[in-house]
Amino acid sequence: MPNTHIPGSQHSPNALSLAENVIKALSIDNLVFGLDDDDLKILLVKQTDPLHQGKWALPGGWIRYDENLRDAAYRLLEELTGVRDLYLEQLKTFGRVDRFPSERVVTIAYYALVSADKFSLVAGQSAADVSWQSVNKLPELVYDHAEIIEHGLKVLRHQVCHQPIGFNLLPEKFTLLQLQALYEAILNTTLDKPNFRRKIMKMNLLSPCNEKQQGVPHRAASLYRFDAEAYKHLSESGFAFEI
Amino acid sequence: MPNTHIPGSQHSPNALSLAENVIKALSIDNLVFGLDDDDLKILLVKQTDPLHQGKWALPGGWIRYDENLRDAAYRLLEELTGVRDLYLEQLKTFGRVDRFPSERVVTIAYYALVSADKFSLVAGQSAADVSWQSVNKLPELVYDHAEIIEHGLKVLRHQVCHQPIGFNLLPEKFTLLQLQALYEAILNTTLDKPNFRRKIMKMNLLSPCNEKQQGVPHRAASLYRFDAEAYKHLSESGFAFEI
DNA sequence: TTATCTTGTTGTCAGATGGACAATAAGCTA
DNA sequence: TAGCTTATTGTCCATCTGACAACAAGATAA
């Protein structure tokens, strides 16, 4: 099992003074989002120590002294899930004086988006105490992790409307309805199919795969992929993504 | 003179081990924005030590062990400028391994908006080596401060279009043209006066002061103030601010 | 073979919005 | 009182948005 290094879970309260080669008082917590059908989920770790029996936590760990912040978040993700190449962005730094017991620990939260291709890999790869949980039905969480997730959801809901990042949650090739379902799941709303389709297509961000869905019991939809090059060009000439 | 506590400026390279009662390796840097007529400015501190002769830095300092992050940013701002009640938000945490010489220092950047009422107070209150600099003509900066400011500007330009925060840069009572000039200065663009006016007024976020500008050599414009209550109500019912 | 079901895709239309710009109003200065 | 500057209102048209109808394409079942 990879060393998940959750502050306060795998360590006793005075673990800080034992940890070697890390920046003391500074940790990483990762918000890993994935889409399970039409349900937005987040990756959580079950706590095993008696103090937090039954509670869950964000996966995280310590930042090494000679390691960039982003690299640390990335390393911790890979150690936990075995998955690389995720969309990863810094969320916010949380440092309330009493957020962590007995020691002052400031944590830098990152959020990651896992593509549908890798969704089932992520939790399977690692220990049984790591699992996807619906963001609409979160279990009890340790420390300020509920607050961090709440903020993360707020930012995700905003970002997804203003940056083309939602594609990172889909498989490489997807249908327009899958894309629509993604927005409906994240924003917790419903959208008009024809209008959504037009809006997306007008942006010229999708390139057709010239393929159709397979094995569906109805007319198969066309598959598209996100065209990162096109987005780069468009945004350089003042285009603003907007849902 | 207030103790500005710039990491690496007022301290020798091994200052970290001398500093008492702070979280080691963790600092705050503040991006303080203000509007000088139609020019967006940022508050910088001139470096005095021989190593950084002539360079400038963001005002910052150390976080105390028993102090919340936001409180630290606030305290440092007040110590430097004597001004309170600024709009203050966390920007991002910067921690590249080699961003700071000889010691690993991670810094949490905050950005503040200073109202036009207080603009001239801010730099005047403190030492001569603190001054407003146009964001379009920045001097040479120490460490990664140029990168931090660049990111801050990007975030400010985005936020100002999606949240009603621009008002924090104006005096309490302002004209519609002042508001327009603010957006033009920050976004570095020009806007159509009648259309801008309509767009703003339709939002119902401004309440009229029933007063007019004084001492202008032309027809005086009506004064308005931002109605925070109205915004609260509107945003609760799904309203999204958008310029 | 044909009806029927489900989803994909295109069309239509009224109302809202946004950008360009004309027109008028109000106050100061010469 | 004319002329200047800015404030404020009005108009027009292209585009966008949301609601919903209509048609197309497969798959399944009678």
TrEMBL record, chains A, B:
PROSITE patterns: NUDIX
InterPro entries: NUDIX_hydrolase-like_dom_sf, NUDIX_hydrolase_dom, WH-like_DNA-bd_sf, WH_DNA-bd_sf, WHD_NrtR
Gene3D superfamilies: Nucleoside Triphosphate Pyrophosphohydrolase, Winged helix-like DNA-binding domain superfamily/Winged helix DNA-binding domain
Nudix hydrolase domain sequence ranges: 25-157
Name of this chain's protein: ADP-ribose pyrophosphatase YjhB (NUDIX family)
Lineage: Bacteria, Pseudomonadati, Pseudomonadota, Gammaproteobacteria, Cellvibrionales
